[in-house]
Design brief:
single chain, about 220 residues, alpha+beta, BirA Bifunctional Protein, domain 2, 4-stranded antiparallel sheet, 9 helices, about 50% helix, about 10% strand, globular
Length: about 220
């Protein structure tokens, strides 16, 4: 996969974000997209070898549409400025998301803005066994890669059913439970990019497993 070509295409698309330009360059787009799908297929196979509970996800299943949803967001550009893909996909669980674009590059995982039932399950798990979750978040190597939970809206008070003096109230107030690791274009175009992603995946795995167990048990 030649990511330099992918970045160059996104740069040009961003300057000419309209259907006419895309129609004129659709063959180029599909060639890049197909190459990225094949690259995702290779990564999918490698991740399945390091995680016995991995849910195989083909590149076609993983990759997101490049079109923005203008029905719900009519003021957005016609096309996105990135390629997004979610591996290890399983219904009702958080995936391993890769975002490659001209403005942002990152890997993320966990559960972002879950619906009430899922959020209630996560909070119940933290209430029951928050020490394990805290240990995962405080692990030195985890903090070096992800820092901490992604900043998102929090409750100003305690969730219903939990005391404001709860010893894990700092976690219980979260509405999202996700982490992110930023990438540079220089890292992405290197030959060992997949190996770097595998290391990040392995470091994130206990975090994702905790959350996935919380919403499925």
């Amino acid at each position: 996969m030649n990511f330099d070509i992918l970045f160059n295409f996104l740069q040009e698309l961003n300057k000419n974000n309209n259907k006419e330009w895309m129609d004129a360059h659709r063959k180029e787009y599909h060639k890049i997209r197909d190459s990225y799908i094949e690259w995702l297929n290779q990564l999918d196979i490698k991740l399945a070898k390091v995680d016995p509970d991995y849910s195989p996800t083909t590149g076609k299943q993983a990759i997101n549409r490049i079109n923005n949803n203008l029905l719900f967001h009519p003021h957005k550009p016609v096309y996105k400025d990135h390629f997004g893909a979610g591996l290890d996909k399983e219904k009702g669980k958080g995936d391993f998301y890769i975002h490659i674009g001209i403005n942002e590059n990152f890997v993320a995982g966990g559960i972002y803005k879950p619906k009430k039932e899922m959020l209630d399950s996560i909070r119940a798990a933290i209430d029951y066994n928050g020490d394990e979750f805290k240990e995962i978040l405080n692990k030195k190597s985890f903090k070096q890669i992800f820092g901490g939970l992604m900043e998102d809206e929090k409750l100003k008070t305690s969730p219903k059913g939990y005391s404001k003096d709860h010893d894990r109230i700092d976690l219980l107030r979260n509405k999202s439970f996700a982490v992110m690791h930023s990438l540079t274009q220089k890292e992405i175009v290197k030959d060992d990019f997949q190996e770097q992603l595998i290391k990040i995946y392995k470091e994130m795995l206990p975090f994702r497993n905790y959350l996935n167990n919380a919403v499925t048990v």
